[in-house]
Design goal:
8-stranded antiparallel sheet; Pnp Oxidase, Chain A; 22% helix; 8 strands; single chain; alpha+beta
């Protein structure tokens, strides 16, 4: 039985996603089959092209083809992005689960503008031939907003 949507948790998830620009990205390891591989991943957020009214936007990443997470995503596109507001267990956090795929054609320009706004230093390497934009299609979302305030959020 699916629970009713919790608007407070939805607002917390959207706030965390939109007010931060880096998180811990866990992908499925190619080198060590079945194990998660986590790394810091800068991101920006664009509007959801399938649902402009969605509270949660779409996280966008800029990855080198040589990076471990890119290699992992080429084999298995499933990943989790953990975003937290601080380093204490009392801080709010959200785990976004979804598929991350390389962006093509028209979507690249929107991602480029959004990403460079959040990460201006990326201008140094954004044009290197092995860097590409990726976007996460969020499948599910788990939010912890403090003691006793946690749950899955419908996306």
């Amino acid at each position: 039985m699916e629970s009713e949507p919790n608007t407070d948790l939805t607002e917390t998830a959207a706030s965390l996603l939109n007010s931060n620009n880096t998180g811990a990205l866990a992908t499925v390891s190619v080198k060590h089959e079945g194990f998660p591989f986590a790394s810091q991943a800068p991101y920006s957020v664009i509007q959801n092209p399938q649902d402009a009214s969605a509270k949660l936007g779409v996280p966008v990443f800029l990855f080198s083809d040589l990076s471990v997470h890119s290699k992992n995503l080429r084999k298995i596109s499933k990943a989790t992005l953990l975003i937290q507001s601080g380093d204490s267990m009392q801080q709010s956090r959200v785990s976004l689960m979804g598929d991350i795929r390389r962006l093509e054609n028209d979507a690249v320009e929107q991602a480029r503008q959004s990403y460079l706004t959040q990460h201006p230093d990326a201008a140094q390497w954004i044009s290197f031939g092995d860097f590409n934009f990726y976007a996460m299609s969020i499948v599910d979302c788990y939010v912890v907003a403090g003691f006793g305030k946690a749950g899955w959020v419908r996306v």
